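lol forgot to send this yesterday, sorry. struct tokens for the thing we talked abt
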């Protein structure tokens, strides 16, 4: 048997996130496919997703199917260009939001010399001489910088945004310390309800940390989103905010059917036996085990013939090959030459006494004669038995009645097959003694 297999890589997952409306995104993990035994396929989840899950609970980007079945991937994306927050990166300066902090009035340490003040700037050191030299989150732009307030429940930043009903939103922002002492602890709320865990600023200055949580809009068409500092200490508690976003998400699921074929079957060629000159043999090629699931199988022979059967007229080695998708297997049959000459002799006595030995009178043959007939008569010339099959024998009865012991005369005509395939008609005659009939 011969067969081949190969491995393939499929990474055809392409996302198409449309910015025109929330909840309008799609991607594909590939078309339904059939794999040959031994092939592998790598399914790729969409890049850029916020959350990804496969049917087996995996959150990995790639999975390798090992059995037939339905495979699906569900992914969640931010909808590009749909940030509900106005001026979330503070590129428009001190506008678009409300706060309980006061604009920095200035002082001996710079604009933010007093607690409970804020400023929008490109560099923390520019608003307080003791703040670290820190850039905004993306570099080169503005950020919100605060000298923390000691007033309970003082909002740092708030904004009312328009939202779409029945939509998932992500609330995200970036926070860093501009002084190492007593890092800020920010609480993020939507409509007065805390969302996720509070975000602790790093004690290392100029290190940005992200807040990220999801919110379901339900029937709401607007949302009051706020950021509050839970740290009320006056010493330190100096921080910067940047890239605040409240973005609608879209979730999409794609699936595909994978059919992994079993190991290729064998080709079995039946019907081979020694062949006589001038004879024909029919060989049959079949797949074993049966039940190969694809119906594109085609059989061919090393003689150039097609189909699953072949009529052979000569000895030789015959190869049948079955091909199709995921299938390239072969089977063999060897037909040997047989001279098929006939050697026929007749016994001269038989004892049809029912003991299982020598109970029938029939020819002893080596090589099947092409034709055969036998007549047996008693001493008065009356026919007692006739046969046209070399395998049949006389049991010492005529029409079911035993004949007497004695001598009977026979004539045999048969076709004597020669080594070259010719047949010679021959006639033999003689007598046989019947003993022990009962």
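and heres what i got for the seq, position by position
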């Amino acid at each position: 048997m011969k067969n081949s297999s190969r491995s393939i890589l499929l990474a055809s997952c392409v996302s198409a996130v449309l910015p025109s409306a929330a909840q309008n995104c799609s991607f594909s993990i590939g078309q339904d496919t059939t794999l040959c035994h031994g092939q592998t396929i790598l399914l790729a989840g969409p890049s850029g997703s916020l959350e990804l899950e496969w049917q087996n609970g995996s959150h990995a980007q790639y999975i390798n199917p090992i059995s037939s079945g339905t495979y699906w991937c569900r992914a969640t994306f931010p909808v590009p260009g749909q940030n509900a927050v106005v001026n979330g990166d503070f590129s428009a300066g001190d506008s678009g939001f409300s706060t309980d902090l006061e604009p920095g009035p200035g002082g001996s340490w710079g604009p933010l010399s007093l607690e409970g003040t804020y400023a929008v700037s490109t560099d923390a050191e520019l608003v307080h001489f003791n703040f670290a030299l820190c850039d905004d989150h993306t570099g080169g732009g503005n950020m919100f910088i605060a000298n923390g307030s000691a007033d309970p429940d003082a909002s740092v930043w708030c904004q009312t945004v328009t939202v779409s009903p029945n939509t998932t939103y992500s609330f995200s922002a970036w926070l860093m310390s501009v002084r190492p002492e007593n890092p800020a602890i920010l609480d993020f709320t939507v409509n007065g309800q805390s969302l996720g865990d509070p975000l602790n600023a790093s004690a290392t200055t100029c290190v940005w940390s992200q807040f990220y949580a999801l919110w379901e809009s339900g029937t709401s068409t607007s949302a009051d989103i706020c950021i509050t500092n839970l740290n009320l200490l006056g010493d330190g508690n100096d921080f910067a905010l940047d890239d605040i976003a409240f973005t609608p998400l879209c979730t999409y699921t794609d699936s595909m059917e994978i059919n992994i074929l079993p190991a290729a079957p064998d080709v079995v060629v039946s019907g081979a036996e020694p062949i006589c000159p001038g004879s024909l043999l029919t060989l049959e090629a079949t797949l074993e085990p049966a039940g190969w699931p694809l119906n594109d199988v085609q059989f061919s022979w090393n003689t150039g013939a097609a189909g699953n059967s072949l009529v052979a007229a000569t000895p030789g080695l015959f190869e049948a090959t079955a091909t199709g998708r995921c299938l390239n297997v072969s089977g063999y049959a060897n037909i040997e030459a047989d001279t098929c000459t006939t050697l026929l002799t007749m016994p001269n006595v038989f004892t049809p006494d029912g003991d299982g030995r020598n109970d029938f009178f029939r020819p002893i043959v080596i090589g099947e004669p092409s034709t055969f007939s036998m007549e047996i008569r008693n001493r008065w010339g009356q026919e007692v038995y006739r046969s046209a099959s070399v395998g049949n024998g006389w049991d010492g009865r005529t029409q079911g009645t035993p004949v007497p012991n004695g001598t009977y005369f026979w004539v045999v005509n048969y076709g004597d097959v020669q080594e070259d395939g010719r047949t010679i008609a021959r006639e033999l005659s003689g007598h046989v003694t019947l003993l022990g009939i009962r």
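DSSP finds no helices and 33 strands in the chain. anyway ping me if u want another try
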